[in-house]
Amino acid sequence: MKSRRSSSFNAGSTADIAFLLLVFFLLVTTMQSEVGMQRKLPQLSNETPTAPIADHNILPIFVNSKGDLMVNQEYLELDGLRSLVKTFVDNNKLGTCTYCQGDGLENLSDSPKKAVVSITSDRNASYATYISVQNEIAAAYNELRNEMAVREYGVEFDDLKGDVQEIILRSYPMIVSEAQVELGSAVATAP
Asked: I need a surface site. Which of 144, 165, 168, 184 has the fewest CB within 10 A?
């Protein structure tokens, strides 16, 4: 009589191989991180606005589906947005702002505390363009705050602490209004 050998498979090393493959794929796989903006929302206020915002205190920025910018009914390249925002915010039309460096032009904001930057973007505009516009606006405000810190206190804004930083933040409050709509063909198409 022949002895029959049972055919068996040694599964002891299979678990080790599966674990090594899992570790390998975890190490070589790249995880895509989301790009976003960190914003501190303003505190809820029970006060209602006493007067409507004057048109000259609003800087309208439109972003169409192709990523083109239109500011004050004129097309603008992204690299010109920062200086335009700085000029608009720091205008000092009323002459009451002691720290402003603007020329007091008639068609720009009364003061930094009344300046509103309004962004309207097409629903089909790319997220990258929207983030770039937001970055340029934030950079404009950061430059204005830094210039005031150097002028008034002799140090960079980031080097200031506590109350002094708050004074500068209140001097240049970043007031941004955002909307997302389907823009009409007159605004949505570049020449």
From this structure: 184
